[in-house]
Design a protein that fits this description.
52% helix, alpha/beta, Helicase, Ruva Protein, domain 3, 4 domains, elongated, GMP Synthetase, Chain A, domain 3, 4-stranded mixed sheet, 13% strand, 5-stranded parallel sheet, 19 helices, 425 residues
Length: 425
Amino acid sequence: MQAIATSKNVNVESLMGAFAAKIDSAGFAAWIAPLQIEVCENCLNLVAQNQFTADYVKREYEKILSNIAADFCLDLNISVHAKNNAVQSANDNVVCEFIKSDVKPVKNKNGFDSFICSDENMFAVAACKKIAMDNSSFSQLFIYGPNGCGKSLLLDCICNTTNKNVVRMSGGQFVADFTRSLRDRTIFSFKDLCRNCDMFILDDVCALAGKRATMDEFMQLITDLHNMGKNIVLTANGTPNSLNGFDRRVQSLFASGLVVDVNAPNAYVRRSMLLRSGIDANVADEIAKQVNGDGHLVNGIINKIKTYTELMGERVNMDVASRLLADVLNKTKTPLMMVKTMCEKMGISFDEICGNSRARRVVRARQIMMAALKASTNLSLTEIGNVCGGRDHATVVYAINQIEKQKMSDLILNAEIDDMIKICK
């Protein structure tokens, strides 16, 4: 403990002894010893190296410290060192610096006008606008949807619309920065970095799956931000309850706020994306019909056509586009493609569908897919069973019968099956 006494009437060593006597040895060594103590004008000032330490000491030890200060006829004040340009942390009396990883700059500068909204995504976009304006009534926003549906683009829109201080990370970046902070002994600085904001955004929480220490830290971060009234936005490829590698308490926390889904771009959205890039209308119409609902794929097509036009100096008509995009344009949908697309939509892996898992959510998803294939294709029951992991004829019949019975009283199930049928057509 660093001691600076400016009052001759106070014995700093006695103060230190009193602290050590009242606080357990582990807590004293970890939280009290690194503080700087200053006694000035009948006030005991305890100065922490960062805000996280100051908040923790206030929460856990303020009552004890206040009583000790009163015994010495002193008032208590717990403060933080003046900030400098580097984020600092105190650990074992050593001040270290934590430097945040570089983040790729946001390319989108037009706010929500750049997000082409379909009818299915209106609710999700409205929720993003509300939280961007900082007048949301929900504790956190959890956005889920398949790859290429526009989740990251919505995060760009939030960042470019809000005037609040935003900390945004990808799931992989959070894991890497947290691990580096432990290695470099800058964990307190990392905690401060994540908490000193008005809004915290994490893109792809799935990257945290199976990483116990990182998940514990993230759970504590979400709890602290929620208690401080900060806005939180999370994204994932599936619903909170369907995420693999997360225990029930984590799934419950993710589901505690507002959960909204973002659908993959439909034909209207794909056509609008192509038209905005300057592609001829007739070419955009045909391409929009022949590609699947992956926004990444559409962006790749746009880049390819624009690059061809720039390098070859000619407009791309449909004949050129067919030759240029022969590797990505879908002539027909194969059953395997249908099943994989439905897996993405339902937030479940293809391996689980084809495997032997009897988990309730897996069995239900498998049965829905079989019923959707039966209703939207001319596949035989044996062919449906083969594409869903080699199930026999009797299993497919049982699955479809179960779904038909449940449809009689379950409106949500009816809507799910309708969505799956649209994917197959």
